[in-house]
Amino acid sequence: MTKTNWLVLKSLAPYVLKFKYRVLIALIFLISAKVASVGVPLVLKDVVDSLSQQNQIIFLPVALLLSYGALRLCSVIFAELRDVVFVKVTRRATRNIALQVFRHLHGLSLKFHLDRHTGGLSREIERGTRGISTVLTYSLFSIIPVILEFSFVAVILLNRFDWRFAAITFSAVFIYLIYTFLVSEWRMKIRRKANEIDTQSNSHAVDSLLNYETVKYFNNEEYEAKRYDEYLKNYEKADVKTETSLGLLNIGQSVIIAVAVTSLMIITSQGVVSRELTIGDLVLVNGLLIQLYIPLNFMGMVYREIKQAFIDMHKMFSLLDLQRDVVDRTDAVELDCRSPNIEFRDVCFSYDEKRNTLSNVSFVIPSGKTVAVVGESGSGKTTLARLLFRLYDVSSGAILVNNKDVKEYRQESYRKSIGVVPQDTVLFNDTLGFNLRYGDPSCSQEDLETVVDLAQLGNFLHALPEGYDTRVGERGLKVSGGEKQRISIARAMLKNPPIMVFDEATSSLDSGSERSIQVALNRVSEHKTSLVIAHRLSTVVHAHEIIVMDNGRVVERGSHRELLELGGKYSILWNLQQNQPLD
Ligand SMILES: Nc1ncnc2c1ncn2[C@@H]1O[C@H](COP(=O)(O)OP(=O)(O)OP(=O)(O)O)[C@@H](O)[C@H]1O
Ligand SMILES: [Mg+2]
After folding, report:
1. I need a labelling partner for 397 at 20 to 30 A (CA). Which of 145, 386, 416, 442 fits?
2. Axis-axis angle for helices 3-17, 20-51 (nearest 10)
3. Near ion ligand 2, which residues have CB within 5 Å?
4. Under CATH, which number does the domain 331-417+499-513+525-583 receive?
């Protein structure tokens, strides 16, 4: 047992101990099943002995025969009951852990998620939860039973026979286990290699087929086939080696058992000849040994599976150990305000230490007003929106909402107060209705239709044969960019929070739709405190204040008129955009 394995068991324990009575009952069934199955050869011995008594009239040992049958049946029934009782523990523990990991992942920072492959993450959860049932099932169904069986057999052997029996039986078991673990370790390496080669050859085949056209253009079919065959050859070698090593494992195990069983049978037979033992004893020894050694055959597999399960579970539990970057303070309060003001005070921020993304950004959005942010691509506009939503915490300076540092609010109530129309909208692979309702899953159909009209989605929805039930495809790829943006606007309106953030909310729309949506947006954000990020300056001329960003700094600020009079960056941009059609 390594340290990580103990850690894994420690993390797993509370989930299982929630069901301590169930576990206890399952253990009782387990012990009963084993007692019954060890009882079978004992009774059989008595049956044989009573039949083979010499110089006596032989009676049919009815009671013994019946108990023989009953014990056999009981060993099966108790084993089944054990499974039935225990399955709930495994499944519920799996469910609870999976749920907790899922919640935890949603609680982790955006940074964590941007650094990760979501596919890999979900495989880690899947493997980890499967590991739970492997460990629980195998320990209860393979390891504990084998240990129990050993103890029972040891007691019987020591009680009824001389020391040689126990000595031979258990040295054989000992050698057997050592041999199995050593060979299994060796085989695992071979297997891993074979799996790696298999993955490589697969990805090569896929890549080659994806490049179908390129292969054709260069007449390289033969070349590709040769490359593929190189991988296949390696896999063939590795696979043959795995199978051969399995044969070796099995043969070695059988040799150990055969030697042990034969020597014990010889000793027993000698005892029978010298009248110290009966024929029944011969049957008993044979029965006990077979019963003891059969489950050992699975030990190699159990060892391999459990080892893998521990690795998988460790990966999953270490996800749970990751700290959240943005956490509530213990004395955090609710944000409850109809129209809060917002202040960025000397905010500095960097995604990583090497490079400053925002430097000393300060501006104020008075309650109910709109402030616009414009600037070149990469100047840090979206970053402002993320900081306001508290997806990250500022490096220095502060963001104040309603004159209080955002860190003093509880995240849940704080985020409830902010509606965001993000730069890139990603939709759930579900229906349009589901995606629209996401802003407020409990909304009424009227509310939904109101925002759909405001976001100018009415015509689009009516034209669809399935209307709200139309599916949008993976990441919403089956709806156009402009439609996606309007869905995003509609659901933010549905959320109806006091603060709104629009990050180039209309950038994918044609000028006509943009203008009419702009009217709707202006109406919606009339009494709301809004942060609007825009490329097209014509959409922000009415803003209370316009902030011009460059390279993470505020370089100009003022109303549209003031900025034009200033004759700086903004006025250059403005003139460029005004003259665009003439170029
Ligand atoms: N998660 C991230 N990790 C590291 N750097 C990032 C991350 N997100 C953005 N950046 C970098 O931070 C800078 C500011 O990005 P931001 O998205 O705020 O720009 P933007 O002004 O919204 O640009 P655009 O107009 O193109 O949307 C960019 O240089 C970008 O490469
Ligand atoms: Mg952006």
Report:
1. 416
2. 100
3. 382, 423
4. 3.40.50.300
Say whether pLDDT at 582 is over 60.
no
**Atom 14, ligand 1: residue with shortest CA distance:** 380
Q: Which residues have a Cβ under 8 Å from the Cβ of 526 and sit 6 or more positions away?
A: 368
SS3 labels along 227-289: HHHHHHHHHHHHHHHHHHHHHHHHHHHHHHHHHHHHHHHHHHHHHHHCCCCCHHHHHHHHHHH
Task: Tell me which of 379, 540, 551 to substitute to probe ligand 1's pocket, judged by most ligand atoms within 8 Å of the beta carbon.
Answer: 379
Q: Which CATH superfamily is domain 425-496 in?
A: P-loop containing nucleotide triphosphate hydrolases (3.40.50.300)
The tokens 């195998």 sit on which residue?
138
- The alpha carbon of 111 and the centre of ligand 1 are apart by a number of angstroms equal to 13
What is the reported pLDDT for 283? 87
**pLDDT tens digits along 313-325:** 888 888 888 877 7
For 281-294, what is the mean pLDDT? 84
**Arch. (CATH architecture) of 1-159+300-324:** Up-down Bundle (1.20)
Per-residue model confidence as pLDDT tens digits over 323-346: 777 788 888 888 877 888 999 999
Enclosing H/E stretch for 399:
strand 396-401
> Is residue 55 over pLDDT 70?
no
Mean pLDDT of 269-285: 88
Pocket of ligand 1 (CB under 6 A): 114, 351, 357, 377-383, 423
With contact defined as beta carbons under 8 Å apart, do 464 and 470 qualify?
Answer: yes
Mean pLDDT score of the chain, rounded to an integer?
A: 86
Whole-Å CA distances, 344 to 47, 210, 421, 493, 558: 91, 50, 20, 24, 16
Ligand 1, atom 7: closest residue by C-alpha: 351
Q: Report the nearest atom of ligand 1 relative to the CA of 384.
A: 18
Nearest ligand to the C-alpha atom of residue 535: 1
pTM for this predicted structure: 0.73
